[in-house]
Amino acid sequence: MAVSQTTGCWRLYVALLGVPVSQWPEHDFGQGAVVPTVAERSRALNALGFTFTDGTEWEWTETSNTVDDAASPVRLIASITVGEVAR
Prior knowledge:
Layout: E1 2-3, E2 10-13, E3 26-28, H1 38-47, E4 50-52, E5 59-64, E6 74-79, E7 82-84
Antiparallel strand pairs: 1-2, 2-3, 4-7, 5-6
């Protein structure tokens, strides 16, 4: 999950190994800079056919738009392990 550079909205996506990025399931929260709650993230994942893996927590990573430039805007990326919802 990260803020989209084009819309400025939080976007949740499921990274699938061996699948092109353009085909990853995603959900755009459409709420600007407000970080979606854990409940909102859970509902979005369920709508995409995934769920949190038991015992996992969100991990937040900080990166910058321009590597090695301390003045570059910071980007926050959140990640968590998920599994497919049994259907």
